[in-house]
């Protein structure tokens, strides 16, 4: 077995691999960019080496630098994780030439299966069903358009070297084909350096089923059952579970055997995943192979009881598989959801910023895989995933119930997240019934801009009780608090301060959803933690309150007890109750600059800005050009995805400040219109 390995990755997957290495007594070497100097994976490694600027192309994707670090550190092997260089055959070959073991498949298998076109041809050769389409060599526009018309619409354009939905477009009509083809090629070229595409018939309402395999260097191959990953957004999986409710034992065996045939024909070694579509008539079709460890591998680990990273390491070290197919069984049910820093109210744009506080759910059957801790940053340079929340139950209903509870106990401050969307999915009757398919979110309107949550009184109470001592007492009495109370049970309401008023109660006004709410508070005479609270003209209530860890507010209303997380975020107070986040604004004094901005709002609407930092990949208009409402003007690439800037109305372009290739900050003016 290896004594030391280098992990050529970052974030949660690097931390996950390190956990198994430490259990096995293997020393770990981390690499980091400028953006990751203080990252969790760096702190948890035995050694850490700087590899370059924040941009992945100058750090995590720089093969020569990583090989050089492996040599300097004395690492015998490199684990690539997923993403970055994980499916790059040139990297696998560079490791081999340097005398370093690549923990993954041989470069030949990676190269063969890395092309979706050749992988599909191989599957057809071994008798595995594939989706009808076009995967020929000709890539000229005329041929592809002709083949698209032969296949029929709707269809999919897919990048041959792609993954994670990059370079994929749904085309509903022939008139849209060439424009969507150009976009798919552009995105594929940016993501993979290869703009080759192929075409597939679009299967209506399919399930996405994948089969996990393990193979050693001695010809032994087994599958570990399936994962269903049907619920996706922008072709990115956000909910994964095992086993799939749609598979019978016979169908599971048939799909597993097809996966083994394909992997064997490819000469595959180590962990890999074969992806299939399952239609409404229970017919399955091979899609592609991921020649690496998958993001969603924990659900397989939980239902099989196996550590996939441990098996990867053992296979790479030359051991034979210690398992046979007959020994593999699935027990119970596991579900994984991906928690992203993104804003559902603004088309799920990534939300960058510092995670000021991350409250992780705990309890039986709950696992959190994350590379993020308090005060870590979600930057523009990498994927905005904060954590993977994985739950396990003895059956699917118990796993869903556990997932709901875990999401309700999760609180993340500093960025906007998709936790509310995940919670909505978990509560949806169609999900609970197992009626999942790849357009699940669109079918049930879960991607629509969410309406403002009904504001519970408890949210206003918690915010006001949290803020009173934080305004006046904490600053003046912090030293006393540190001496008097434990870090886990601070109760600043027991400390007298200037905010405690005699006579009228203190009143705080919050604005939520355009409506003002007045919260009046008065301490109950003779007590230190009981308050009389009145919201607007409603009845006054007696509330017992305790503050823990300066974030958690414990409210007791009669016999009911509530755990509410609160934190002040500049001009807002963020409150999290049962997994739902509420942004409350304090009434501010008149602001001259804000008033001026409001007066100039009409002018501001004439400028279209970058929703986040990124690179201009396409400028489709010129100054002086007349454009129609909703016409695409500029395409911005950020967080590995393309974002279109469209005209808000019919008008004329006055100015386009940036050219293609320019890197722009968030908020930069991209187009001025009239």
Give a verbal description of the structure:
The protein is of the alpha+beta class and 674 residues long. The protein folds into five domains: 100 residues, Rossmann fold (3-Layer(aba) Sandwich), CATH 3.40.50; 70 residues, ATP-grasp fold, A domain (Dna Ligase, domain 1); 237 residues, D-amino Acid Aminotransferase, Chain A, domain 1 (2-Layer Sandwich); 130 residues, Glycoprotein, Type 4 Pilin, CATH 3.30.700; 74 residues, RNA polymerase II/Efflux pump adaptor protein, barrel-sandwich hybrid domain (OB fold (Dihydrolipoamide Acetyltransferase, E2P), Beta Barrel), CATH 2.40.50.100. The relative contact order is 0.08. The termini are far apart. The protein is globular and about 80 Å long. A hairpin with a 2-residue loop joins strand 31 and strand 32. 28% of the residues lie in helices and 31% in strands. It has an eight-stranded antiparallel β-barrel. A five-stranded parallel β-sheet has the order 3-2-1-4-5.
Looking at this protein, list some descriptive labels.
674 residues, alpha+beta, Rossmann fold, Dna Ligase, domain 1, D-amino Acid Aminotransferase, Chain A, domain 1, 5 domains, eight-stranded antiparallel beta barrel, five-stranded parallel sheet, 18 helices
